[in-house]
Amino acid sequence: MLKFVKTWWSITILHIEIEQPIVCLEFFSGIGGLHYGIQESGISYRMAMAFDMNENANDVYEYSFGQRPNNKAIDYLTIQDIDRHKADCWLLSPPCQPYTRGGNYGDNDDPRARGLMHILDLLPQLQHRPSYILLENVMNFETSQSRNLLIKVLGKLGFKFYECLLSPIQFGIPNNRLRYFLIARLRRPDPCILENKSNCQVGLNTTHICSEHTMWLSENIKLTENYLSQGKEVIYTEWPFGPAVKTITVKEIIQRPLYSYVDTNQNTVLTLQVSASDILRRRRLEFDIVQPSSTQTSTFTKAYGSKHLIGSGSLLQTQQMDITENGFNAPEKLLNLGLRFFSPKEVARLHHFPEKDFKHTLKFPSRITQRQQLQLLGNSLNVHVVAQLLKHILFCE
Ligand SMILES: C[S@@+](CC[C@H](N)C(=O)[O-])C[C@H]1O[C@@H](n2cnc3c(N)ncnc32)[C@H](O)[C@@H]1O
């Protein structure tokens, strides 16, 4: 943007203001759901580096973004590995197993929580800390020790945060995927960054600015302790949340029909058909069956598309639409309903991964099988929800 500015010595000079893209790091990047989220938000950004140790996910990430994530285990990243990027914004979706029944609710003691614990350990030691953070996880994370530690670390560093449990269905998308999100923003610029930062770090408080800063930080720590003492009360469960929301109104949220996500050409694809033997093996269990006219689907997990038909995600009925059955007592009644899995493309659509109109769209290299695609998508997240939360923390605050 070009701007004419009158200076104090009364000469008009030409300023060139360049909008600086916000520099991001994506931890536990998978296939890049959070990267697509910041892309959809419209915020000017540069993804400096993504980190993930799953090479299938990294192949997809590289194929779609032209940038290969660092495959070093996050537990072993050094201060330099992170500081060198001078990132303003961190996007994180750490493994969810430590906070699930399947993972025995191991919380901080689960080895899969080590990556997150390590990052929280490094954060206060960095020369260049981020000003914005978004973290995604499963429901239950909000009651974990990991969450308490995360909040304490952020509070000590001067962050303000919002925590919420939200599902795409609240954004007009016919998919349930209730997830925990934390969005955090540094409360105000760290004055020590402007002054000599090391004075503050050794606790000498040698300058006026540093002592002011220390007082302000202890205030933030008190606020955080008070916040933590309120338990679950502080977690938002509705969207839009908070008085700061100016740009989004409830009226703008329009419920989108499921049929607009369905590709009927997939109805005859053999690899998507649910086999009769897998259906008949289930007794006294309810199948989750939807039709294109349905208003919602359930969460797609990484087991979707496998033999685990119950609880891994909705099956699509493609025939005899006048019949509604869940197969509880008689699974044989389901055999003529043309049950199929949603294709990876349809699941990606329900997660709002971009197919067009954006610089980066989700593409799978041909060597990634249908099952692997569904696995990776089952581990991923809803891009639209992330975009809305990022807009909230970057524009509305
Ligand atoms: C919940 S998934 C994140 C999915 C991602 N948000 C997406 O959109 O696909 C967690 C990811 O963390 C990766 N991961 C788990 N532990 C890790 C570690 N210690 N170091 C690096 N990556 C790790 C897994 O490979 C997986 O891709």
TrEMBL record:
<keyword id="KW-0489">Methyltransferase</keyword>
<feature type="active site">
    <location>
        <position position="96"/>
    </location>
</feature>
<dbReference type="InterPro" id="IPR031303">
    <property type="entry name" value="C5_meth_CS"/>
</dbReference>
<dbReference type="InterPro" id="IPR001525">
    <property type="entry name" value="C5_MeTfrase"/>
</dbReference>
<dbReference type="GO" id="GO:0032259">
    <property type="term" value="P:methylation"/>
</dbReference>
<protein>
    <recommendedName>
        <fullName>tRNA (cytosine(38)-C(5))-methyltransferase</fullName>
        <ecNumber>2.1.1.204</ecNumber>
    </recommendedName>
</protein>
<dbReference type="Pfam" id="PF00145">
    <property type="entry name" value="DNA_methylase"/>
</dbReference>
<comment type="similarity">
    <text>Belongs to the class I-like SAM-binding methyltransferase superfamily. C5-methyltransferase family.</text>
</comment>
<keyword id="KW-0949">S-adenosyl-L-methionine</keyword>
<keyword id="KW-0808">Transferase</keyword>
<dbReference type="GO" id="GO:0005634">
    <property type="term" value="C:nucleus"/>
</dbReference>
<dbReference type="GO" id="GO:0008168">
    <property type="term" value="F:methyltransferase activity"/>
</dbReference>
<dbReference type="InterPro" id="IPR050750">
    <property type="entry name" value="C5-MTase"/>
</dbReference>
<dbReference type="InterPro" id="IPR029063">
    <property type="entry name" value="SAM-dependent_MTases_sf"/>
</dbReference>
